[in-house]
Amino acid sequence: APKILYDQAGTATGRLTVKSGPRILTLPSRYRDILMPEEGCEIVQIDLVSAEPRTALYIAGKSADGDVYASISKSLGLDIDRNTVKVASLSALYGAGAGSLSKLLGSKVTAKRVINRLQEYFGVRRIESQLTSDMKAQGYITNLFGRKLMTRPDEIQKAYSHFIQSTTSDAAITMFSSACDAMSDNDSHFKPYYVIHDALVCQVSSRKRLEHEDKTKNLMLEGVGLYETKMTSVSDN
Q: Is the C-alpha dihedral spanning 160, 165, 170, 175 positive or negative?
């Protein structure tokens, strides 16, 4: 396949799109085993675990170690299962309604109450206020890295979600770049193939697999915090 060329200016948030080359971003994961490694190697996928909620917690000044959703549940004393906390957290981060959550909790009133508590925990209103102020003063907003976002003034209600998505996208690229440097220094068969949003697809030497997995289990974003990862063989996806 030809070398992929990404575009970081094709969306409002700067999340990657494919400018030319394989359309890997829209390839169903069940077909990723068409990628074949060299002899003695395997192709793995390194995923950032709960990347966007973790970014949101760090920006809010909260701890984001370990299982993010279990930590949120414990901190807020929520007597609901992890999957429900996940749905509630994503609803709080991206301004979704209480419909999906109310089906899990059995009450729209309870769902709205949980979402409001989570938005307060993530500091959504405070950051929204700052982004709105920046938009009025500058005519645009930026992510944590200073990237100018293409969020329009008439869609300021999307500012927070764009901010989190864009910051996480740039964080992933930054951390994957450092991880690639570290793995290539220790593995002559290492080859980075694709970035798929919050995941890096690469080739590693089979005998180095466990070593790479251990060293990339936690990736550090300087000035922000640790991001946990999960490495899987692409053929298992």
A: positive
